Amino acid sequence: MSTENIWVTIVEDTNRFREIFALIIDGMDGYRCVSQYEDCESAMQNIVEDNPDVILMDIELGDGKVTGIEAVRLIKEKLPETEIVMLTVHEDNDDYIFDSLCAGASGYLTKDVSPDALLDAIRQAYKGGAPMSPAIARRVVTCFQQQPGKESEFSAQETRVLSLAAADLVDKEIADKMNISRDTVRYHFKSIYQKLQVHSKHGAIAKAMRKGLL
Predict the structure, then answer these.
(1) Which of 11, 110, 146, 148: CA 20 to 30 A from 44?
(2) Global pTM?
(3) What is the pLDDT of residue 151?
(4) For the chain, where are the E strands, in sequence order?
(5) 3-state secondary structure of 132
């Protein structure tokens, strides 16, 4: 991980998109495209050595054996601190959106994202945020609103922690808001992850919303 630049890896099978994104990233101070791959298999062979801060991952990758969503799970096992932002032309596929987030992706962007929005999304993900294209964010909210209410499987404290995380608060802010320690916040998240069978904060939020628990 770089202390000067945000190191970015691009995994995208369309040359045009891959080249455009790389030009945008390398053309701005504070960002560096450290590697590019056209399929998940190639990326998986080198990703640990690349050690990027953020990965831009195409959700549908040609004829490869590993899909973008499957790659997220595999990469997060090897590089849990690396943030992964999905790239898609499918802004209306709810399954793609939630499966990606549950797998551990940090964000979800459509490929027509503007250069400024792309760089902002990379920085948001790097800082622990959950960047989404407006159309994607609207679908997440709509899906959440359509979920029937269910009895929560979380404690009151866990529900509060997850709700604050869904509002984009970081652990320190959650701890301050609830007047508890950061260790207690992390303990609650560990319990939430176990109950939902997920491995990330974004995945927990997505799955809880999908199940109507938030």
Answers:
(1) 110
(2) 0.68
(3) 46
(4) 6-11, 31-37, 54-58, 83-88, 107-110
(5) strand
